[in-house]
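If you are new to this repository, start here. Below is one unmodified record pulled from the training split, so you can see the exact layout before writing a loader.
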Amino acid sequence: MIKKVLFIILHVLLFGGQLAYADLEVTFVESAPKDRFEIKNTSECVLKDFVLNVDLSNSAGRLIFDTSATGAGVEVFQPFEVVKGKLTLISSTTVKDGDKTLSLSIESIGPNKSASFSIDVDDTLAQSELGNIRVSGSEISNGLVAVNLKNKKPYKASFNKNGKALIKLPPCSA
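And here is the target side for that same chain:
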């Protein structure tokens, strides 16, 4: 804590600038036929060269990615597709049917800008709120999102019952 306070004081003295908090909001949007994950930079800082990990292993609905006609998913399927922004899938060349995790390399997201990707997500519950092919916000709750910045520990947040995860990142210069 003392180091953080000293860093802030030193930054203000040396640069005369204010520190801004860089937060990232990840939202799951249930939609037919493609579900979507929106990644929004809610700060005044440009976020560059970072890795975003999505892990649905602990989600309330035991969610999986449904990317092919055969396999663990139900009926409708959709592969991973970048919708907006400079995102590169780095966990593998494709997300396999039944996978619960994926990793993205993100080149940059400007202040109050967003990036997004689509993919089908299904639950694996015996009885679910909307059926297995549609996912409610409460079913994605406890799914985890982590951001890895260069040379820093990962910053994590869980999805809430509304399908949102807010990742608090360290301050940056505005």
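Two things worth knowing about this chain: The domain at 20-173 is CATH 2.60.40 (Immunoglobulin-like). The chain has a mean pLDDT of 80.
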